Amino acid sequence: VQLVESGGGSVQVGGSLTLSCKPSGAIDTMGWFRQAPGKQREGVAAISTEDDTTYYAGSVQGRFTIAYDNAKNTIYLRMNDLRQADTAVYYCAATTSEWWYRLIPNVYNIWGQGTQVTVS
C-alpha cells in the first residue's frame, strides 16, 4: 500500500488548512504525524476507518479534526487556528497494529512522502 498526501502550504497564524491522504488500498487505521526542524516526529491524530474512532495529541485537540471519507478512501486532517508551533512536515501513516491509537511513530509501518505546512 502506498500513501499519497496533498494539501500543505503556507498560512498565517489563525488560518486553516486541510491535508489529504489517499492510500492505494484498504487500510484499517491511519494517522497523521509531524516533524519540525530539529525535533522528533510526533503524533497528531489517528483514526480507525472501520468505526471512525479518533485520537488526538493534546496540543491539537479542539483545533484539528481527522476524518475518513469511505467513498473516496481518503483521510483528511482539517487544521484550524494554526499557530507558528504547528509549522512542520506532516506525514500520513498507516498500521495494522492494535496500538495505533497511541500515536507513536514506531507503531506505524507505511508512510507518505510528507507535505510542508508553514505558519507565519
Description:
By secondary structure, the protein is mainly beta. Helix content is 0%, strand content 48%. It contains no helices and eleven strands. It has strands at 3-6, 9-11, 17-23, 29-35, 42-48, 54-56, 64-69, 74-79, 88-95, 110-111, 115-119. The strands form two sheets. Strands 2, 4, 5, 6, 9, 10 and 11 form a seven-stranded mixed beta sheet that branches. The protein has a four-stranded antiparallel beta sheet with strand order 1-3-8-7, with no helix packed on it. Strand 5 and strand 6 form a beta hairpin. The radius of gyration is 13 Å and the shape is globular. The termini are far apart. The mean pLDDT is 96.
Structure, briefly:
The protein is mainly beta and 120 residues long. It is 0% helix and 48% strand.
